[in-house]
Design brief:
alpha+beta
Length: 205
């Protein structure tokens, strides 16, 4: 099993990449990525709409992957378990497979709680050991909807739908976009109305 601090480093970079490029969250279940760190070009095999695709990382996303590359090539690295994997983010329990939602779900719950983006309830306690149940207030679906609404209001719904590789503009309109963003906005951690709420309760992925 990989060292805990190494897994945390991978998880943090994975979340950073998602936040810096919301479109990547749509491709988490693809079979593999081929990345050009010089151009930020990412070739996806078997993406969300079941076809190959080429997407582009933001400058922040490129920086995240370069930091990860430095971690893998460092002389003092403890990430040797991931070096032989074909995936940028291999599964901790089996590096021959890529991460999926369950790979980082528990980490994200605790991470969001520490940032004030979630809550927890004590389930039971025994001496110094405590078991909590976590609930996220800001999920990956919130991130995608916020991105699509902001992008769509700036560049048009068609452009937003293409950027997210949705099967149709109708899917984008029905599930991700609203022209009246204020109707769905909620107070964020910092008191700013900058998070678009979900139209319907959905999954956290």
């Amino acid at each position: 099993m990989p060292p805990k601090n190494c897994c945390i480093a991978f998880n943090l970079r994975f979340i950073s990449l998602i936040v810096s490029s919301a479109t990547i969250t749509e491709q988490l279940r693809c079979t593999g990525w081929i990345v050009n760190l010089n151009t930020g070009e990412v070739y996806l095999r078997d993406s969300k709409d079941r076809s190959d695709a080429t997407v582009y990382l933001t400058e922040e996303g490129i920086a995240v992957l370069k930091k990860l590359q430095e971690l893998l090539t460092s002389d003092n690295t403890n990430a040797s378990w991931a070096i032989g994997s074909m995936y940028i983010f291999p599964r901790r329990t089996d590096p021959t497979k890529h991460v999926n939602f369950n790979s980082y779900r528990k980490f994200t719950e605790k991470f969001n709680y520490k940032l004030g983006l979630g809550e927890r309830t004590l389930v039971r306690a025994k001496k110094t050991r405590k078991l909590y149940k976590y609930k996220n207030h800001f999920t990956m679906k919130h991130l995608r909807k916020t991105f699509v609404t902001a992008f769509g209001n700036t560049y048009g719904v068609q452009a937003a739908s293409e950027r997210m590789r949705h099967s149709s503009v109708k899917v984008t309109k029905d599930h991700y976009f609203t022209a009246d963003a204020k109707k769905y906005k909620v107070k964020s951690l910092y008191g700013a109305d900058n998070v678009v709420q979900l139209k319907k309760v959905g999954t956290n992925d």
